[in-house]
Amino acid sequence: MKKEVLKNFRVWIPRIIAFGAIFVFMAIMEPSFFAAANFIEIIRSVSVYGVMSCGMLFVVLIGGLDLSMGSMAGLCASIMFTIAQTGANTLSATLLGFVVALGVALAVGWLHGFFITTLRIPFFVVTLATKYILYGAIPLITSGTYIYVRGGTPIDKIGTSRIFDTIPILVVYFIVIALVTWFVLNKTVFGRRIYAIGGNPTAAGFVGIKVFKNTNVAYMLCTAAACIGGVILAANNQQAGTTTGNAYEGMVLMAMIVGGINLAGGQGTVSGVVFGALIIGLIQNVVTFMSWGDYLKLVQGVIILAVVIVSVVMHTRTVRGKSRKAKRLAAEPQE
Amino acid sequence: MAKEKNIIKISETDTSEPRKTEGELLRCENIDKLFSGVQVLFSADFSMNYGEVHALMGENGAGKSTLIKIVTGVYHKDGGQLFIDGEPVEVDNPIDARALGIAVIYQELSLIPDLTVMENIYLGQELTKGGMRQKKRMRNRTLDLIKKYELNLNPDAPVEVLSMADRQMVEVLKALSQDAKLVIMDEPTSSLSASEAEHLFKTIEGLKKKGVGIMYVTHRLEEVYRIADRLTVMRNGEVVGTLAKDEINPRTVTTMMIGREIKTERQERAPRNEEMKLEVKGLSYGDILKDINFTAYGGEILGIGGLVGSGRTELVHCIYGIKKPKTGTITFNGEPVSRSVIKNINNGFGLVPEDRRQEGFNPIQTIEKNICIASYDVLAKVLGLVGAKKEREWAEKAMEDYDIRPRDRNFLVENMSGGNQQKVILARWLARKPRVLILDEPTVGVDVGVRAELYRFMRESAAKGSIIIMVSSDLFELVQISDRILVIHDGEFFEEFEGEKATQQSILLASSGEYVEEGARL
Q1: Cα angle, residue B386 at apex, residues B384 and B389 outer, rounded to 5°
Q2: Chain A residues with CB inside 8 Å of B344's CB?
């Protein structure tokens, strides 16, 4: 038991160092970074990335990828806002909007799975195509404009409420979704199957796991998470339209890599995803905060690349350490 | 020009020089080979002539591949001498071998599917002029070759549209374009259908007439009768002998391959449990299996023999439910067997697949998860929720019972030894107390010690009344372990043996379609 705690702790060392480095950097450069208002801003972006990353985790674990997440988020938010607005922003109209948006998301997720498994089209091609299709569908829903919601409406409450008047409600969604994801992956047979498929789909088929069916479900969970992420993002911004969630899948993917999720499938934890989302959200905030203006995206890209390289190197080192231990164990005399 | 430096030369014209077509082509004298101190070839002698088809046979591990790899420069010999045309030669690497006119047709074909026949033949040795490809010249040259060797190939066809047999032709043509005089074929028919194989034999005869020497490695006796002029048999790294065409007969060949059979103590067999029975009737699958009928009973280990590619794996996959048979019925204790793998597993079926790395385990998961993956019907009864404690105890008990090392349930399976990986997969099923356990080549790549343990586990499981079906190419194992052996030949069960009466030779003969009196013809 003690050994396991130690092993888990080793995973967290580079993560803690990464956080430390960012905070020290900001303490020197810009002490006002530590203002409460800024932390709230950080929590906001981290929460959206976090929710979407949890969904992406299922797909990455089975060895796939969903490049349409950002567009899916934007489309779902637009659908929900449009329906809510049409229904005069009543609670029931808002709920109906969410249900419809979620239904669309699940349908698209199922289609992703169908194309990828039954028709054997590479996930890359399928999700890249739907990325543009879904993005292109947004103006059809919103009539080419943005849909705004006023304060006091149910949507506004979803996005901007605060717990104890300080903590943004978005973080609650993130925590809930992360816990549910953790539970599903670690405590259910479905979770075991996801890891089994990701590690070796053929072998999974040989123990009776329905690979196609489970793959479909993973893609549906991913689009559902994209839907929730898009809705809370738009609700927080009090507007939905083409820019909502646009290109978020890139950030989500970065969060995966930083969180040590094996993009080949079969390996990855929810704690890794949470950490990855935190780091990516932090970096984005730092870059915005430093008011580098035109260089913002450039600097952001460079920092993320650096973090990715460091975390990949760190990861391979721990893996190598493990295989060294494995060799030692295998070499031990067997009585 | 850099092109001039190419070691491989393409004959400018096919009629330029009359090629040698008679006499001795290759001679290997006293070839020794050691792998990290272990001798695998013992002063092997082998020779072949121009225009001869010389077959090479032997059990797995007899040293055929090692000998070929020495001739083709892949391995370095540790003693002896090679002669080409009577001249001593040194073959230090595959390029030397090619320059000497030795070509190998590999089983995994090395062609690029998108390119045409011509482009594949000239791949890496394109005819150029001033840096430009001379397409016309290459095409004409290819056509000349095709005509000369009377092949039926279109030089402009992309390789991906060709059949496996035609692809092999292209390989052969590629070798011939480099002036190969010795073509080595390593089990060329293993991926071919009967008609494709016939096509290949015709080509081989054509090549023979043109004076090309063909070294033909095979497991199939029928092919040896069909095409070989001479046959050399190897066993345990030694050349047992060479037979001329009229000396080749099944008894002699199999005796040479197996040598003196060592009879060791057989394990006590449990009484047959007639209550538990798996019946297969009239099963056919693809073109491989035609009409399979048998009944397996609880308490006995049923061995299934036959050559690689004879459909043994397909048969067990059909029983297990992972492949759908074309026709036929499979019943278990009178009930039809489901076509769903998971239903069969829950009904007490289990399969240890042939290729454990591909089909067996998840390398990046722990021993625990790999053992438990087939048992969540027991470990997660309520709402699909897995009890961590239940899972841990299940895995720990299995690791204890089947002595899996290292005894660390969180150890990744990819880092284990082959034998222990196999134990993990076996433990996955044995922990469930299976009613029908199918093992496909269970001891490939497993060391002797673990092998004995696997046999013991199989016997114990049978003694508890389970049906054990074992597919194996290891004749010793098949004869030693099975209580009853069924041999597949030509898509049907050809002969049945009682374990006590079976000998390795009789199994081998039956696999090749030779009836022997030890067994009962089916």
Answers
A1: 160
A2: 208
